[in-house]
Design brief:
Blueprint: H1 2-10, E1 58-62, E2 65-68, H2 69-85, H3 93-122, H4 129-143, H5 145-155, H6 159-181, E3 186-197, H7 200-211, H8 216-223, E4 235-240, H9 247-255, E5 265-267, E6 270-284, H10 287-308, E7 311-313
Antiparallel strand pairs: 1-2, 1-7, 3-4, 3-6, 5-6
């Protein structure tokens, strides 16, 4: 873990600006965790830091704390280096377009880290100098002192600057570990199936067949438009609250008892029919669902930081 954290100081590992690509009926995609999953509450707004006169150009102010233009430019250099490391030439038209698109994203990530570190300090979370030294010594033992010094020189960093950046990385990591630790590993879950079609009329026709004794799974294989669950007879497996894409579908599932079938439910994805196979009041969350809930809890918590922040940007999002 320490090695992974310190490497971030030397190389911004993201190579492309993240893009969310929607897929057809992703019923296992997370939505914000509900109270049932004990997602961390929105953070208390952090009191603004009294700004101090800047002696060098700034990229941003984050609750009164500076991000210098020099630090931002170093991050952009690292981003370009990460492109090269993955076989993408930043000097090509495509590479230049990717760099231009990354400018705002890189600054946002820097601001976000500053917000997390500020929240950590507000909650008394910190990393000691001894822990930072130990992490550096671990890296030096791995790559050698000469390589370590070369990296500092290539980044234009002094050892003290690298230590300060590493301390922030480690503090942010510790803060996020605390945030996701609030997500419980056991909770109420249901095992359900669903059928989703494009029109209300078709959904009612299928529901009529179910009520007259037709097999739900067979109908799901024949008619459901959810390509992820259709071949499994519409099986969504066990899931806690906060996992399904459509809150209407999830609410309906948790309102039913085993063996019961819902009415037709409208969502942004279409018209659904839900059948609950089983429900358990206290069940261990699967590793995949737990990962999704923790990821979403972290994003929701960070969104709370952004909402409460006073951020000023001093650079353009484009070259």
């Amino acid at each position: 873990m320490k090695r992974a954290i310190i490497m971030i100081v030397f190389l911004l590992t993201a190579c492309t600006v993240p893009v969310t690509t929607p897929t057809a009926f992703p019923e296992t995609t997370t939505v914000p965790p509900t109270a049932e999953t004990s997602a961390p509450a929105a953070p208390t707004p952090i009191p603004p830091i009294s700004p101090t006169p800047a002696s060098e150009p700034l990229a941003a102010l984050v609750n009164g704390e500076t991000i210098t233009l020099a630090d931002y430019e170093r991050q952009m250099v690292r981003y370009a280096a990460s492109m090269t490391a993955t076989g993408k030439d930043p000097n090509t038209p495509t590479g230049q377009k990717a760099l231009a698109e990354a400018r705002a994203w890189v600054l946002d990530r820097m601001i976000e880290q500053r917000l997390i570190v500020q929240a950590a300090h507000a909650q008394g979370i910190d990393v000691t100098d001894a822990e930072v030294d130990a992490a550096i010594q671990s890296l030096v033992a791995d790559i050698g002192q000469e390589t370590f010094d070369e990296r500092l020189a290539n980044e234009g960093l002094t050892l003290e600057e690298a230590r300060a950046q590493l301390k922030d990385e480690m503090t942010a990591s510790r803060m996020m570990e605390q945030v996701v630790a609030a997500v419980p590993e056991h909770t109420e879950q249901v095992h359900a199936r669903h059928i989703v079609v494009g029109t209300e009329e078709e959904a009612h026709q299928i529901l009529t067949q179910i009520k007259t004794g037709a097999d739900f799974a067979t109908l799901a294989r024949a008619y459901s438009q959810d390509v992820f669950t259709r071949d499994r007879g519409g099986d969504l497996d066990y899931f806690p609250r906060g996992i399904l894409t459509s809150p209407e579908v999830e609410t309906a599932a948790f309102d039913l008892q085993p063996g019961q079938v819902s009415d037709v439910i409208k969502s942004e994805l279409g018209y659904h029919i839900i059948q609950v196979v089983d429900r358990v009041s206290d069940m261990e969350i699967s590793p995949e669902n737990l990962r999704q809930l923790k990821d979403k809890a972290a994003r929701e918590w960070i969104a709370g930081l952004w909402a409460a922040a006073d951020v000023e940007r001093f650079i353009s999002a484009t070259p």
